[in-house]
Design a protein that fits this description.
The protein has 365 residues and is an alpha/beta fold. It has twelve helices and eleven strands. It has two domains: 231 residues, 3-Layer(aba) Sandwich (Aspartate Aminotransferase, domain 2); 115 residues, Aspartate Aminotransferase, domain 1, CATH 3.90.1150.10. The strands form two sheets. The chain has a seven-stranded mixed beta sheet, sandwiched between helices. Helix 2 runs parallel beside helix 8. The structure holds pyridoxal-5'-phosphate. The site of pyridoxal-5'-phosphate (PLP) has 14 residues, from helix 4. The site of pyridoxal-5'-phosphate has 14 residues, from helix 4.
């Protein structure tokens, strides 16, 4: 048995991050967003090839602001996958818009195009396309862009799990919609502790987002307010982390892909574990997500062997917070069998081998 517990996920900050924070503190800055935040935004804009990047304090409020900046209002319907982190629907519930839950594709766990089409009503104003584990829908992003155009809907991309993932046409995930949103919470590919970023090529949306996050100020630092806004600003301390983490992003993207390949190799002959379709050329698997037979027993066995796992998101319509009737076969299947295996970038090859051997041993008992 392995002596050291292998967590399902752990954040990874090093000496570079602490040096950067210490250096900033030594300068006696104001903490609130300023030059380092601007640099962090530029780094994300460069990496994703977005015209604008606006950072905010997390990847939930970023979705709220994205929807508000795109003109979504209380009472409007927004189509959202029934398999996603609960932040996706909660973000628009916050200002009274209504999520309409639609099932996902079995291969990618992204929205099912035909089911989206069937769910459109006269109240539908937007589609929130969530990139599940960096994946894009099998139906193709252009089909979603086309559908949104046909029905005059706004396409918002929840790319919280997708930094380092691209569509096959070369665009970074998050740039196909009117606005795309990332999260930098602790388990993400890179983290600023908490944090979110919005990318867009639309000047008007970018200006609205900047006002919404800063009290509706008409310009940096002034107290002139033509519109209502709030305070969802970033801090320079988070930016210090983010700048250093961005320098490590390319390596982490490659490492995540290697980790995924190793799991697939070592579990190739295990019919009790099923992987989803992950295009490793273009996308970066954030977590190792699988469907596992006898999931609960497997989790307990892995825990006894010092291996941490996590159940994937349950179907949102069945969450007590929502309780919306409807049968959504794929998100329900994920709710029963979906499992995240250890996925941290710092995972060692021999640890992956040990995890897979333990999984195989469980089913061969
Ligand atoms: C798909 C998705 N959307 C939104 C969020 C929310 O991001 P945050 O935790 O930064 O608020 C997450 C976080 O895990 C997520 O996975």
């Amino acid at each position: 048995m392995n002596n050291k517990f292998i967590p399902q996920m752990e954040p990874w900050f090093g000496a570079e991050e602490s040096n950067s924070i210490n250096e900033y503190l030594g300068e006696g800055g104001w903490m609130t967003e300023f030059k380092r935040t601007a640099t962090f935004e530029q780094l994300i804009a460069q990496f994703t090839h977005a015209k604008h990047c606006i950072v905010v304090n997390n990847g939930t409020i970023s979705l709220t602001l994205a929807a508000m900046a795109c003109g979504i209002e209380a009472g409007d319907e927004v189509i959202i996958p029934n398999y996603t982190m609960i932040a996706s629907p909660n973000s628009i519930k916050m200002f009274g818009a209504n999520p309409v839950f639609v099932d996902v594709e079995k291969e990618t766990l992204c929205l099912d195009l035909d089911k989206v089409r069937q769910a459109i009503t006269s109240k539908t104003k937007a589609i929130m396309l969530v990139s599940a584990n960096g994946r894009y829908p099998k139906a193709g992003i252009s089909s979603f862009e086309q559908l949104a155009k046909e029905h005059n809907l706004v396409l918002i991309e929840d790319a919280a799990q997708a930094l380092g993932s691209f569509y096959p046409d070369g665009r970074h995930i998050g740039l196909a919609g009117a606005v795309g949103s990332f999260s930098f919470s602790a388990p993400k590919v890179i983290s600023t502790g908490q944090g979110g970023a919005l990318i867009t090529n639309d000047d008007d949306i970018a200006a609205k987002l900047r006002r919404l996050k800063d009290f509706g100020r008409s310009g940096g630092g002034n107290d002139i307010h033509d519109t209502i806004g709030y305070n969802f600003k970033f801090t320079e301390l988070q930016a210090c982390l983010g700048i250093e983490q961005m320098k490590k992003l390319n390596w982490r993207v490659e490492r995540k892909k290697e980790i995924y390949k190793l799991y697939k190799k070592h579990l190739a002959n295990n019919n009790n574990i099923r992987f989803f379709d992950q295009d490793l050329e273009n996308t970066t698997p954030w977590f190792i997500d699988v469907l596992a037979e006898q999931r609960e027993e497997l989790m307990a066995y892995l825990k006894q062997n010092n291996i941490g796992t996590r159940i994937m998101y349950p179907p949102i319509n069945k969450q007590v917070a929502y309780q919306v009737p409807g049968e959504h076969t794929i998100s329900e299947l994920v709710g029963k069998k979906g499992l995240w295996l250890p996925s941290a970038s710092q995972l060692q090859n021999d640890e992956i081998e040990f995890i897979c051997k333990t999984i195989n041993a469980f089913y061969n008992k």
